[in-house]
Amino acid sequence: MIGRLRTALPPRRHDAMTDRVPTPSRYPGPQAMAAAALPSEHPPRALLEQLRRLPGHDGRIWVFGYASLIWRPEFHPREQRAAHLHGWHRALRMRSTVNRGTPDRPGLVFALLPGGACRGEVYRLDAATADDELQRLWAREMPNGVYTPRWLPCRTAQGMLPALAFTLARRHPACLPRLPDAAMLDILRHARGRYGTTLDYLQQTAAALRARGIRDREIERLLALAGRAGLIADQAASAAAARASDMPSCDAASTSTPGSSTSTAAAG
Asked: What is the pLDDT of residues 222-266, one digit of tens each?
């Protein structure tokens, strides 16, 4: 299936900062959708009500994945598509004191920060089980209320669609500045939380992205840094092991497969 998408979404080596995504008139523009972000304490039911009020909404519920949701989703999607999100980029900048670290030894996880662009995947939830699946997703991604959940316009080969994305405000205390390599290596060497180490999280995300034709330049740089420091004994074997734990197949025919063209004190 990915082969069919490549003509519409040509692979890129990294998330381009200059991508411009046309927004069809049937959906609200990126600024309007971003302005509709809910405070993080709002439950999933309020998010669904907000989605139903969006102009042109067709009743389907999509979630945008850019990191661990790709290789460890919290739901069984009915459909998945390669997607491009303009105006936000993936960054290993969110402090994790639960899933990939502890309060005494914080780790890092990916978050969506303003600016640039991000390639990932969107997943359509089964309408019959969407409430329960969003509750589980909420428990995983929002235990500390760090993220700001938003409905953001994602471009797919089949057109634009609004998808739920977990974003992070730069002003939030959990959002760290770009760390020097020495500080990053210290985290990759020592940080461990309830779901494992920050290093394992980084490797699994890299493998899942590569399997979908996405080469994130900063992720590749961090893996090379860890390799030179002796933290990754066999990068090829590690990548293969991570790919083996890739996300389960959809219940219905998927519109994307590996080879195509994605957080928190909570993301695992």
From this structure: 999 999 999 997 544 444 444 444 443 333 333 332 332 333 333
H-state helical runs in the chain: 2-6, 30-35, 44-52, 68-71, 130-141, 181-190, 198-211, 217-228, 235-244
H or E segment at 191? none
C-alpha to C-alpha distance for 266 and 268, rounded to whole angstroms: 6
List the end-to-end C-alpha distance of the chain, in Å, as a whole number. Answer: 28
Given 74, 79, 133, 141, which residue is catalytic?
A: 141
Task: Determine whether 119 is exposed, middle or buried from the number of CB atoms within 10 Å of its CB (0-12, 13-18, 19+).
Answer: buried
Per-residue tokens: 179: 């760390």
What pLDDT is stored for residue 237 in this prediction? 43
18: burial class by Cβ within 10 Å (0-12, 13-18, 19+)?
Answer: exposed
136-154 average pLDDT score? 81
| The two structure tokens encoding residue 5 | 């998408």
How many CB atoms sit inside 10 A of residue 32's CB?
13
pLDDT tens-digit readout, 33-60: 443 444 444 566 666 666 666 655 666 8
Eight-state DSSP code of residue 59: S
211 — pLDDT class (breaks 50, 70, 90): very high
Pairwise CA distance, residues 72 & 123, whole Å:
13
Q: For residue 49, give the nearest of 121, 143, 131 by alpha carbon.
A: 131
Is 121 catalytic? The answer is no
Contacts of 187 (CB under 8 A, 6+ apart): 101, 106, 107, 108, 179, 198
Say how many residues make up the chain. 268
Judged against a pLDDT cut of 60, whether residue 24 lies above it is answered with no
